[in-house]
Each structure stands twice: as structure tokens, then as C-alpha cells.
Specification:
Blueprint: E1 4-10, H1 20-32, E2 34-43, E3 49-53, E4 59-66, H2 68-87, H3 98-115, E5 124-128, H4 135-141, E6 147-151, H5 159-162, H6 168-175, E7 180-183, H7 186-199, E8 203-204, E9 209-212, E10 215-221, H8 228-236, H9 241-248, E11 251-256, H10 265-278, E12 286-291, H11 300-320, E13 328-331, H12 337-346, E14 349-352, H13 361-369, E15 377-381, E16 394-396, H14 401-413, H15 416-432, H16 435-449
Parallel strand pairs: 1-2, 1-5, 2-4, 5-6, 6-7, 7-10, 11-12, 11-14, 12-13, 14-15, 15-16
Antiparallel strand pairs: 3-4, 8-9, 9-10
The protein binds adenosine-5'-diphosphate-glucose.
Adenosine-5'-diphosphate-glucose binds next to α13.
Length: 450
């Protein structure tokens, strides 16, 4: 079997990585051998690269530091102030500077330089996410002929958002150097096809084959999953339920997100406020736990979302709280996975209301964590990639507070029988299309594309 080279923005360097994606990529590397390459997380004036063996497994990790300038231009700049907002339908939040464009190209070129001595004949290269679109082009320019695949974890932008890039046609030139581009959902292939048709010389050969800048490119939807078996076990072994119940009091709704403007947190807060106003009987009978650790705090839009959500939570608590009931508890901390699994299991409603989201793994974790005998109800935005497959959730329009509030009321009143039926169907999908299925399916398609 040929070796696998994985390249991702962040390289997990801890001894005990626990995220599903990390486990899946490590498993793939373990069975084929190879190298996992990524940013160390260190921003320093004297950036270095470090090669380490992975203890007990036939693969290595190659990490690189970033200079403060590269971190600013490539990571905070082009990746998170241009690509992230555009891919999430927020061109109003884009900040374009020529330094960002140069920095993005420069860092991708340096990663290609750094990779060259570590590549061997017959390797397969799997590039992860939007930070690294130009990497295949940079590698091809250095003579690499290996199979190269890309997987985009976030939505692919439609023509209007793509058109707001500093050089839209360059994105398609970058993509043309891959053998396979993988997306989370069918809708992303549609957006890719339409944007490519309008903004580049792309020809549509079939549903999954395109010709771009004279090269043939395969595209596919590979909905990412979670490490379902482990998550189910973690939820079953979660800490003492009674203690948790006394912490949560009334019927609990839970939201778990990075504090990001794409996740629709203010929208779900407003819907909850509407619910409490319209159905006062639910006051003191329902509570809302929102866990949202801040990310990318250096970017202005993230400071704004923190202020907005804190303000809203404060206002709702001010309006409704009583001596023995706090309507919203808003926690800005990351939680250990077993604690999170236990909280999901205790929550009668899982609220996943992004305005745009590649997949959304919280939706899958919430389902996996439920007790099948007495499961909770998932409320899911139609704009999460997960909505394409998780059709038994209560699917809502996150821009419409009346729609969300109505789904909350429906979830509170749903019969045990209906909850069980919906949950069984959702759980089947979560278990069948888990994270191991995702990586195996993607790699098989990459082999087939070459
Ligand atoms: P994210 O935008 O980070 O991922 P998501 O898929 O929901 O979104 O994954 C978040 C992960 O972080 C989940 O596993 C969740 O449990 C964890 N998490 C969130 N808050 C936490 C907290 N307070 N404590 C501990 N863990 C927490 C991007 C894309 C998604 C896509 C994923 C994977 O934006 O659309 O699903 O990549 O491809």
C-alpha cells in the first residue's frame, strides 16, 4: 500500500489527542505509514520545523512554526478574514489587504518546500481544508506527480461569494492541480460547479468530473462523521446523572459551539426569548445551557460576536430570571469530552442552528450521546451540511426566530414514541457513516481518481 502524507493547518502534538478527526487520520496513517504535516501552534521570531516519530506507529509528524508576520497574513488574514467569512456567506466581514494574499501564497510555498525532502515515489497526499488550497499547485510546480486530494471542511462558496475573493480565478487554478476535491455535502459540489462555470474555464464532464485549466478533476461529497462507538461509550459512562440533573434543574436545552458568527448563537438566543414570551408556562420548566469557547479572538468580528452574545444572554436573564431559575447559562470554556458527552445525554433538546456550516459534528455527537430508551430531540439548521443526511431532526431556518421557537415548543411536547423513532433513524446514520467510514471512503475515491 502506498504511503499517506496528510497536511492540515494544525498538527495535533499532544500525546493523547481525542478528537474524532485526529483518531481517523492517525488510523489511516498507521495502516499505510507516512507523515502528518502541520502548524505546531507556535508563533515565534525564529520559526523552526521539527520531525518526530509517532511512538509505536509507522508514521512521523513534521511540524512547523509560523513567524508573527506569516501568522497575521496567512492564518488570521487570508484564511480567517477572507476565506472563512466568504465560505460562510459573510462577505460583509471580509477584510482584504494585499499582504494577506501574498502571505497566503508565501506560506503555502514554504510548506511545499518543507515537504519536498520527505516525499517518496508512490506517496498519496491528502490536504485538509481552506488554509491550504494552493498547496497542490505549489507541489506540482516543484515536480510532484503524486496523487493529491483536498478535503474542504467548510462550505464551498457560491458565485456571489467567490466573486468577492481578491482573485477569484486563482482559487480555481489552485484547485485544478488536485486529483480529487472532497466536500461535506452535495450542495457544495453544486456551488463548486456553478462558481467554476461562472468564474473560470471549468467544463462539467459528469456529476463528479470536471475539466479545469486543461486538467481533469474529480469531485465528491464525503460527509464527515464522529468516532461514534467511542462517543456512545463515553456518554454511557458519563458522571453521576443525578448530580448533573441538579445542576441543570428544568428540562435542559444545550448548544455547543466555538464562539463563531457562523454558528447562529444570537439567533437561537432570540428564539428562546420569543419562546419564553409567547409560552410563559415554559418559564422555570426549561433552561438553556450554551457552551461556547472563544476562538480567533484577535479577529475583530470574533470580538463583536462575543459582545453581542453576552449582551443578549444578560438581557434574557434580566427579563426572566427568578430566585430559583436562570434561563440561560453561558459558559465560555472548553469541556473535557466525557463531561460534554454527559451534558448532551442530560439535555432533552440539542440546538444546532448555524447560518452556514460545512457539516456540524455537534449534531452527530448529540445524537450519539442520547439514551435510546428516552432520547432527546435534535433541532438542526437547514444550512448545516448535516441536514442533508439527518433529515429526522426538526429542521429549522435559523434566520426565523418564530420557526426555531416553534421547534423548541414541539420538542418539549414530543411523545416518547416519536422521539424514539426519530432518534433511532438518526443514530443509524451516525453509526454507519462514522469517521472511519469517512476517511476510508475518501481514500478509496482518491485511489480511483488516479
Ligand atoms: P467546527 O466549526 O469547529 O469544525 P463542529 O463540526 O461543530 O464545528 O466541530 C466542533 C467540535 O468542537 C465538536 O467536536 C465539539 O464537540 C467540539 N467543541 C465545541 N465546543 C466545545 C467545548 N466547549 N468543549 C469541548 N469541545 C467543544 C469545522 C467545520 C464543521 C465541520 C468540522 C469537521 O466548520 O462544519 O463539521 O470542521 O469537518
Amino acid at each position: 500500500m502506498s504511503r499517506l502524507i496528510v497536511v492540515s493547518n494544525r498538527l495535533p502534538l499532544g500525546d493523547n489527542p481525542s478528537g474524532g478527526l485526529v483518531v481517523a487520520l492517525e488510523d489511516a496513517l498507521r495502516s499505510s505509514g507516512g507523515v502528518w504535516i502541520g502548524f505546531s501552534g507556535e508563533v515565534t521570531d525564529t520559526p523552526a520545523t521539527t520531525l518526530q516519530d509517532h511512538p509505536g506507529a509507522p508514521f512521523q509528524r513534521l511540524s512547523f512554526d509560523l513567524s508573527p508576520q506569516d501568522h497575521e497574513d496567512y492564518y488570521l488574514g487570508y484564511s480567517n478574514s477572507i476565506l472563512w467569512p466568504l465560505c460562510h456567506g459573510r462577505p460583509d466581514l471580509v477584510r482584504i489587504f494585499p499582504e494577506y494574499v501574498d502571505g497566503y501564497r508565501r506560506v503555502n510555498g514554504s510548506i511545499a518546500d518543507m515537504m519536498m525532502p520527505h516525499l517518496r515515489e508512490g506517496d498519496r497526499i491528502w490536504v485538509q481544508d481552506y488554509h491550504l488550497f494552493p498547496l497542490a499547485a505549489e507541489l506540482r510546480a516543484r515536480g510532484v506527480t503524486a496523487a493529491i486530494g483536498h478535503f474542504l471542511h467548510i462550505p464551498f462558496p457560491g458565485p456571489a461569494d467567490c466573486g468577492a475573493l481578491p482573485n477569484p480565478e486563482e482559487l480555481f487554478d489552485w484547485l485544478s492541480h488536485y486529483d480529487l476535491v472532497g466536500f461535506q455535502a452535495e450542495r457544495d459540489i453544486g456551488a463548486f460547479a456553478e462558481s467554476g462555470r461562472q468564474l473560470s474555464d471549468m467544463d462539467h464532464l459528469s456529476d463528479t468530473e470536471f475539466r479545469l485549466s486543461g486538467r481533469k478533476l474529480h469531485a465528491g461529497a464525503f460527509p464527515i462523521g464522529i468516532d461514534a462507538k467511542n462517543f456512545i461509550a463515553e456518554a454511557q459512562d458519563a458522571p453521576d446523572e443525578d448530580r448533573m440533573r441538579s445542576l441543570t434543574g428544568a428540562k435542559m436545552m444545550i448548544g455547543v459551539d466555538r464562539l463563531d458568527y457562523s454558528k447562529g448563537i444570537p439567533h437561537r438566543f432570540r428564539a428562546y426569548q420569543l419562546l419564553l414570551e409567547k409560552i410563559p408556562d415554559l418559564q422555570e420548566k426549561i433552561s438553556f445551557l450554551q457552551i461556547a469557547p472563544p476562538t480567533r479572538g484577535e479577529v475583530e468580528a470574533y470580538q463583536d460576536i462575543r459582545e453581542e452574545t453576552e449582551h443578549l444572554a444578560g438581557r434574557i436573564n434580566g427579563q426572566f430570571a427568578s430566585l430559583n431559575w436562570t434561563p440561560i447559562r453561558f459558559i465560555h470554556r472548553a469541556m473535557a469530552r466525557p463531561v460534554l458527552a454527559g451534558l448532551y445525554r442530560q439535555a432533552g433538546i440539542g440546538l444546532v442552528t448555524p447560518l452556514a456550516d460545512g457539516m456540524n459534528l455537534v449534531a452527530k455527537e448529540y445524537v450519539a450521546a442520547q439514551d435510546p430508551a428516552d432520547p432527546g430531540v435534535l433541532i438542526l439548521s437547514r444550512f448545516a451540511g448535516a441536514a442533508e443526511t439527518m433529515t429526522e431532526a426538526l429542521i429549522i431556518n435559523p434566520h426565523d426566530p418564530y420557526d426555531i421557537a416553534q421547534a423548541m415548543a414541539q420538542a418539549v411536547r414530543m411523545s416518547l414514541e416519536e422521539r424514539r423513532e426519530r432518534h433511532a433513524a438518526l443514530l443509524k446514520g451516525v453509526v454507519e457513516q462514522d469517521i472511519a467510514w469517512w476517511s476510508a471512503t475518501y481514500l478509496k475515491a482518491l485511489d480511483a481518481a488516479c
